[in-house]
Write a structure and sequence with these properties.
Blueprint lengths: L1 H43 L7 H6 L6 H13 L1 H6 L13 H34 L2
Helix pairs in contact: 1-3, 1-5, 3-5
Length: 132
């Protein structure tokens, strides 16, 4: 009897964590998108860092959000981004320390949310197979 309740409480707590994370993640993404896109497009939104199809598709919503994710990735983890997408970028990115912290928080929430989702769906799948 206690095990059944513990599973239910765990599942509800995990659901609440995912909901809270989503309520923080998406507004922060929207705010960073509104701030970063106008200030970095002239510097970064061109070839060779974006392909021709991306330059066309990433201009308009909702795919423009992917452009801002690339900027967040560059600001939050510059060494890795410069090895992958932004090879050869030598320019200094004109953002303040607060924006760097917000970009790193955004990346942390994305990876933490991915881990929570794996646990959530894995646990739900196990419960569905073995309990039901």
């Amino acid at each position: 009897m206690i095990g059944e309740h513990a599973d239910f409480v765990f599942f509800i707590a995990l659901s609440a964590c995912i909901l809270i994370l989503g309520l923080l993640y998406f507004p922060l993404w929207a705010a960073l998108h509104k701030y970063l896109t106008p200030s970095l497009d002239d510097l970064l939104f061109r070839e060779p860092w974006f392909q021709k199809a991306e330059l066309t598709n990433y201009r308009f919503f909702p795919l423009s959000l992917l452009r801002s994710l690339n900027y967040i990735y560059l600001i939050g983890c510059p060494r890795m981004a410069k090895r992958k997408r932004f090879k050869g970028l030598e320019a200094v990115i004109p953002v303040g320390k607060a924006v760097v912290i917000l970009c790193r928080a955004q990346m942390f929430m994305a990876f933490f949310g991915l881990g929570l989702a794996v646990v959530y769906f894995g646990y739900g799948g196990i419960m569905a197979v073995f309990v039901l």
